[in-house]
Give the backbone structure.
Amino acid sequence: MTPVSYFPHQNNEMYVEGIAIRDIAKQVQTPFYCYSSSAIEASYQDYQNAFSDQDALICYAVKANSNQAVLTTLAKLGSGADVVSMGEIHRAISAGIPANKIVYSGVAKTQDEITYALSLGIFQFNVESEPELELISKVATSLNTTAAVAFRINPDVCAQTHAKISTGKAENKFGIPISKARLAYKQAAALPGIKVQGVDVHIGSQLTSLAPFKEAYQRIAELVIELRADGHDISVVDVGGGLGITYLDEVIPSKQTYADMVKAQLAHLNCKIILEPGRSLLGNAGTLVSTVVFVKTGEERQFLMLDAGMNDLIRPSMYEAYHQIIAVNKGTKSLKTYDVVGPVCETGDTFAKARAVHESDAGDLIAIMSCGAYGAVMSSSYNTRMLAPEVMVKGEQFAVVRKRPSYEDIINQDVTPDWL
Ligand code: LLP
């Protein structure tokens, strides 16, 4: 799926499925996020088809986009959820994802969060540290129940992705070192309230090559064999998420090619396979639509100043991420080079430098592509800007699935004490 597969131009006008973006913009006002439900469904089906010959469960990584309409779309297809907080558990459950399809990752789970997850009966805790395991054991014992656990293993593999989203190297905070795994499982097996059932790994996000996955899964397979020899009943391997998407011209292995590699490394273990994809399900199913407020001519550059800013989409300033920037109406104009910036009072509020975009005027609509994952979920109201609404499209229907708050909503969250 390319960034524009579900956002094609027809007669120079950008559509999402069967609706012109311009028509949505008239009703919703920019900036807004816009998702194609067909794109989400198609990505999910690709995973499901690729793993249909396995006992596999897709646990969508809720952090990528936790809108209830997105979660409901996936729940209806049978998806489980990979969650990292009590909030994400609430969201998953309220969208109809059953507790027994939830895996709980998350690096510093609190006692309250563990208690809540245990009371629901989730499928598995992906345990990140020995002290966390002890806390889970304590809580499970006090509730007179048993927690099914897997340790997240840090295999010390370089994911060859951006440093801020690389998680599987020894220096990263995630998981327990593979060298300590056998000891950790031994300790776990001796703890009350704990059922050791699996092994979990996630080495990073936006991986464009299969090689790091393969290396990690090879190590995990060897570990499973060792753990079984040590007497542990390992029946689940959680392979994490991380498969990348095309933002510009990255050539990403298909989900089928990824699945073939996973099966080559792990199928012989006869384990249930858990997948935790986020970006590869949602990334190219969404766009951020904004309006050009001004075209400003600086001394050296021309700036396209948008009504969307880094508070709406932080990826370019945070990870130097590339997102295609496309005029919603290409008209008959030619390409021109712009710095595309937002209205926030920071130089970092820049979506792209020296980028070719069809010549645009104030009032024109601009689409920032590949924003379905890690877009709206990472937004803030910095500069007291409204959180951008989210819109879901299916065929020729659309709905606002998160509405824009009012200024009152925002100000009323604050409290001025009467002693001031
Ligand atoms: N499982 C675990 C344990 C994770 O930490 C993550 C993502 C995933 C699954 C899903 O990975 P995906 O399939 O989406 O690559 N905000 C960053 C990405 C952070 C990813 C964090 N973990 C970005 O905008 O690029």
Notes: Residues 61, 64, 82, 105, 165, 202, 205-206, 240-242, 276-280, 315, 319, 373-374 surround LLP (CB under 6 Å). The first helix runs from residue 21 to 28. The chain has a mean pLDDT of 96. The longest strand covers residues 286-297.
